[in-house]
Amino acid sequence: MEEKTSFTITGMTCANCARTIEKALLKSEDIEFAAVNLATNTGFVVGKNIDMEKIKKIVESVGYGISDKPAEKIEEERYKRIKKNLIVSLIFTIPISILMIINMFFQKISYFTFLETVFGAIVTFYAGRDTIKGAWIALTHKHTNMDTLIFFGSIAAWSTSVLSLLGIEIGSFGAIGTMIISFHLLGRFIESYLRDKAAKEIKSLINLQAKEARVISENKELMLPIEAVKEGMIVLVKPGERIPIDGEIIDGKSGIDESMISGESLPVEKGIGDEVIGGSLNLTGVLKIKATKIGKDSFLSQMINLIKEAQGAKVPIQALADKITNWFVPVIISLAIFSGLFWYFGFENFYPLIEKASNYLPWILKTNNPVSFGIFVFVATIVIACPCALGLATPMALITGTGLSAKRGLLIRNAESIQTMKDIKYVLMDKTGTITEGHPSVVEHNLDEMTLKIAASIEKNSNHPLAKAISDLTNEYIQVDNINEISGEGIVANVNDIEYFVGKPLDYSKYSELTEKGYTVVEVRENKIIKGYIVIVDPIRPDTKNSVKILKNIGITPIMVTGDNEETARQVAKQVDIETYYAQVKPNEKLDIIRKYQAKGQKVLMVGDGMNDAAALKGADVGIAIGTGTDLAIENADIIITKEGISKIVDAIKISQLTFKVIKQNLFWAFFYNIIAIPMAMMGLLHPAIAEAAMAFSSITVILNSSKINEKRYVKTLLDNEKKACCM
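The structure assignment produced for this chain is given below.
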């Protein structure tokens, strides 16, 4: 059986670290797929007979580790450690940098070389010890990472001070070595802060998880750790408290705020028999709740895991960045060595060409020593080319995009759908529960009392929304046997050896007066003889019509695909302004319709309930399932809507378009930065300290750009589309 698991990785510093771990994991026969995310410090694997001990050994074999601590806790500890090291480095870097400027441009300072050697040693080997450790791990395991570049650059710069102190005629760059480490730590500090801020949505969900629950036992109230709560226990929740578990209300009535989970801002009134979700807020009444799902099976836990899974996954566009970062560091080291040697041997011929530029670029080294200038160019080239921005470009956009999706009531399970969504041209949607509210009610029937009880008893065995409407017609149920639900048709069952069918009519023309009003008719047959009918109405969602207009406005064609009769389908389609619809469609036929539109070379999105539409959801380019906690197990959907209907489809499309746009921007600036900066460094036109600052700035720019995927920007985009839609 195929298994999947995620875990927290320690010791990663750049995209090459993630790539190295990924390659090592994929060498295992048991692992079919592996993805390592630098931005979240997590790994995700899919395979057979997954053994965490084996995975741990694989990760450790390439120099990294796996921790049982949550990624959030590790990131917090990392942040504090970086902050401490940054403070130490700045204490020594700031004064030595000021002295360097004075020594270079104003007054020669006695013992300056000694000071920069000592200060450089403290900053490089103490404040920068994690960088040296990271570089050493990479080199001893025969690969390279960002720490390798910082290590070579800072050590090379510091070594010139040592050599100069020993009397060797060479330019001293010890102060630059301290600046390299300090800029590196400053960049890491800001990056860590911004990454933590970008992941705030999932942190908010984690904070919703209760630590304790008030359990009623033998008429006593006991505060128990949430881990000690078992299924079937009765939990008391007072007004203003968060509901600690998933369960069913057995006593009480209250307004429930589910906004952080469903994206719905208005409270929901719930009473006896209604289900509640752990993490939601009890507003007004005292509730007694019977626990039905706890721990990892709870809705909130599954929601968090699905978001983490999506954030740790990859989109196709990231493949290009991965290929580049895989060979990027070794190539840069080679270019840096080549540049240093080039300037050493060609100093007399080529230095005069850039000496003139020093009049405009005062940081260009003025020297007559080819060794000094060769080291100057080597250090600048090494430092400028750290591939952090490339490694963070996609993951950071995914973190913010999936976080916003969760806030809007969307769970993106398949990150690839983010890239696919921008090309969607057709949205195929079911009627019941998608276009309509999914809470149908019976408005008319002509059944005798016994037949009505039989029909209700049969329908009680189905999860279909129409079945629930019928089963609620009575409180007295009859024993039924040999139940067989025919997908897209109805249910057959035996009562006292008599066969009953509840489902689609044999001839819809008999009910034309009802179907013309948009009603759904369910026929009841006894031994294939018609006993009567039940008329059901399912109100259209208030947001459906406007959402259809927005879809059209952004160039997407909405299509209704329903198993209901032609007349009902036509009436509903007319009410919501959908021109194209398919009626009396069986579940297997929906896939054929999807293939029809895909054959035109267009991307198709399918929205269904995740049960009868499994094949269609899987066959579409993007599959969206609508449901609540019980539907989280739907494996065929790429995206799960936790509440509401078509308006959430618009949300999913717009968030995906915004996320992919930011990914492209991030990759563009990361590539553009390297294309411009590396040649300048090799030509000797960049100071190593400026190069390090530019490298840190590029990573920070990517993170800040990713933060544009936020609620405020999204809502503005959506409102603009709504205004345009209203004018259509």
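Interim note for the steering committee: The chain is about 50% helix and 20% strand. Residues 318-355 form the longest helix (38 residues).
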